[in-house]
Design brief:
This protein is mainly β and about 120 residues long. Helices cover about 0% and strands about 60% of the residues. Strands 2, 4, 5, 6, 9, 10 and 11 form a seven-stranded mixed β-sheet that branches. The radius of gyration is 14 Å and the shape is elongated.
């Protein structure tokens, strides 16, 4: 099983980016999916999560600016980031609680994608 992120990059403050994360491999089912981020010298923190039924949860710092969504048919989760601020600069990681055939639910992580917001 692999999670592959894309869509990071450099953007000016106030701009937008859309991150994608596709899960591939031998997958039986996917429960929650989410995005986390880690800035230099800081701990990894939750950005947003979404259940298989579409229930979302956001960190207070991104509410109203970021939107998480998913396409269950494509095993893909998205993060639309608007009104970006320099403090949003971080490596963004996606994760998924999923079950491969004949196994229990495990949490998988992507390799991370860099988002840099200039002031």
């Amino acid at each position: 099983v692999q999670l592959v992120e894309s869509g990071g990059g450099l953007v000016q403050g106030g701009g937008s980016l859309r991150l994608s994360c596709a899960a591939s491999g031998s997958i039986f089912s996917i429960n929650a999916m989410g995005w986390y981020r880690q800035a230099p010298g800081k701990q990894r923190e939750l950005v947003a999560t979404i259940t298989s039924g579409g229930i979302t949860n956001y960190a207070n710092s991104v509410k109203g600016r970021f939107t998480i969504s998913r396409d269950n048919a494509k095993n893909t989760v998205y993060l639309q980031m608007n009104s970006l601020k320099p403090e949003d600069t971080a490596v963004y990681y996606c994760n998924a609680d999923l079950r491969a055939p004949s196994t229990v639910v495990l949490t998988y992580w992507g390799q991370g994608t860099q988002v840099t917001v200039s002031s």
